[in-house]
């Protein structure tokens, strides 16, 4: 008999290509390779605020849900750090100076739809996609942005998890919780599909940010001309 594949393993394998595609999107690739600007980084932080505002509002709704609750931890909360980052990067009036790009609006709408439907599996899918990514590649991104834009410890709080001493161990426990979730085969498939949707939102977000940057460049050129 073939060995049974755990849900967390199946999820990781099924989403591997989508994850790689998100990381390789042009906007993010340029930022990681030193071809982006400080404004590009600020634009990304701003979009993160809208996404995590929705995700962490949903976490409050699901805090008492028996399926979703094990995944929710204050150690993961990112909104206060994002707000501190934006205040440093933009100024105290940052709320009036940021707007969501179209993909962010769709992303947020989907998270709120999952929340309104009280679909615990859908919430876990978005929770997993964001926070485990933050605890993985996000750690490297934060250090890279700090070095590229000479931020020091300022403006990168989003990537700093002071309350999680061992991210690898934390992720191992998280995957054990995924494997313990009481989902039948059909629900497990729905959750994986939602994770793939979340990764697609991430990829499309980078496409939107690249488009906004290109439009701004054209406008600047026209102004100079």
Explain briefly what this protein structure is.
With 225 residues, the protein is mostly helical.
Helix and strand arrangement:
Blueprint lengths: L6 H17 L2 H7 L5 H25 L16 H11 L4 H4 L4 H15 L3 H16 L1 H12 L18 H14 L4 H40 L1
Helix pairs in contact: 1-10, 3-4, 3-6, 3-7, 3-10, 6-10, 7-10
How is this structure best described in words?
The protein has 225 residues and is an all-alpha fold. The chain has a single domain, classed as Heme oxygenase-like (Heme Oxygenase, Chain A). α3 runs antiparallel to α10. The radius of gyration is 18 Å and the shape is globular. The model has no long low-confidence stretch (mean pLDDT 92).
User: What is the percent of helical residues?
Assistant: over 70%
CATH homologous superfamily assignment: Heme oxygenase-like
List the uncertain runs: none
Terminus-to-terminus distance: 71 Å
**Secondary-structure content class:** mainly alpha
CATH topology category name: Heme Oxygenase, Chain A
């Amino acid at each position: 008999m073939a060995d049974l594949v755990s849900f967390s393993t199946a999820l990781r394998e099924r989403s591997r290509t989508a994850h790689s595609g998100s990381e390789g999107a042009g906007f993010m690739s340029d930022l990681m390779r030193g071809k982006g600007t400080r404004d590009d980084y600020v634009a990304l932080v701003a979009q993160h605020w809208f996404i995590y505002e929705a995700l962490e509002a949903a976490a409050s709704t699901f805090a008492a849900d028996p399926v979703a609750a094990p995944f929710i931890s204050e150690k993961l909360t990112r909104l206060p750090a994002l707000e501190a980052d934006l205040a440093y990067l933009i100024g105290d009036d940052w709320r009036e100076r940021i707007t969501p790009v179209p993909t962010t609006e769709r992303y947020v709408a989907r998270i709120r739809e999952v929340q309104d439907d009280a679909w615990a599996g859908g919430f876990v899918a978005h929770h997993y996609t964001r926070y485990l990514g933050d605890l993985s590649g996000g750690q490297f991104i934060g250090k890279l942005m700090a070095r590229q834009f000479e931020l020091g410890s300022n403006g990168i709080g989003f990537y700093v998890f002071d309350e999680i001493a061992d991210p690898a161990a934390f992720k191992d426990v998280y995957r054990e919780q995924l494997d313990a979730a009481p989902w039948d085969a059909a629900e497990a498939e729905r959750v994986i599909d939602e994770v793939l949707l979340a990764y697609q939102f991430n990829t499309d977000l980078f496409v939107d940010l690249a488009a906004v940057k290109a439009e701004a460049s054209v406008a600047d050129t026209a102004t100079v001309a």
